[in-house]
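Project outcomes to date are best conveyed with an example. Our students and postdoctoral researchers have been running inverse folding experiments weekly, and each run begins with a structure described purely in tokens. The record below, which covers 243 residues, was selected by the lab manager from last quarter's runs and is presented without edits.
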């Protein structure tokens, strides 16, 4: 489910579900979280996340997931593990990062993005809402205008635009990400930990307002969400009614 290798003080964790384009299910979320926790216990100084094959992560895939009801909590725990790790986490985005794949990338501290990769959160095409953490973190990293383009405009952000916006810190492949990670291991760990704590104190963990919670819940229980699922099964465009 995941591959784990170590080179010096750098641990690389590879999502290995290429037949589903490394889409996350409950088992993969749990395995990846445990891999991060184990790397920390083993005194790794940097963790690199990447995907096997041509995709970074195609989002959530609950087809055949025996623990589908546990998936939201498993994903939340994974994102918290990445965001809260006391060491830097670099996402080597080797291909498409869709939905939960984009969330995994923006939970990481740094992103190295390869040619052909892109970021996408198709929530408005699925009739669902994304949480405050995702909206605020994406705006923090890419800027409010780009975040709105992705979320409200429903557009993909390719590697060039990701780099231009600042969402991608570097352009390159896994080898470049690992080389950068190795150089970071030479820096002061306590200073890096402090920087991460301050950078991630960006309002993403603030409690949603009552109005925001109501709007979030309304989207997830809407007829529009059901229509999106029907349309997907019937291979047609959904007809949203705003109810």
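After processing, the design step wrote out the following sequence:
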């Amino acid at each position: 489910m995941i591959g784990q290798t170590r080179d010096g003080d750098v641990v690389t964790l590879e999502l290995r579900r290429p037949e589903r384009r490394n889409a996350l299910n409950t088992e993969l979320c749990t395995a990846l979280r445990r891999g991060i926790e184990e790397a920390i216990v083993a005194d790794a100084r940097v963790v690199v996340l990447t995907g096997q094959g041509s995709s970074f992560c195609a989002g959530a895939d609950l087809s055949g997931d025996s623990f589908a009801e546990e998936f939201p909590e498993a994903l939340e725990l994974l994102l918290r593990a990445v965001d809260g790790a006391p060491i830097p986490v670099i996402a080597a985005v080797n291909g498409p990062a869709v939905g939960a794949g984009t969330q995994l990338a923006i939970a990481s501290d740094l992103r190295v993005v390869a040619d052909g990769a892109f970021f996408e959160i198709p929530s408005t095409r699925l009739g669902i809402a994304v949480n405050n953490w995702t909206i605020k973190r994406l705006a923090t990293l890419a800027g409010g205008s780009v975040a709105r383009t992705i979320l409200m405009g429903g557009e993909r952000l390719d590697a060039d635009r990701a780099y231009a916006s600042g969402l991608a810190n570097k352009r390159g492949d896994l080898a470049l990400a690992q080389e950068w990670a190795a150089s970071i291991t030479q820096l002061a760990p306590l200073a890096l930990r402090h920087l991460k704590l301050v950078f991630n104190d960006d309002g993403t963990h603030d409690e949603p307002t009552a109005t925001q919670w109501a709007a979030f819940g309304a989207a997830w229980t809407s007829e529009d969400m059901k229509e999106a699922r029907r349309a997907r099964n019937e291979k047609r465009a959904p007809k949203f009614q705003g109810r």
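The chain has eleven helices and nine strands. The chain has a mean pLDDT of 95. The training component of this project remains on track.
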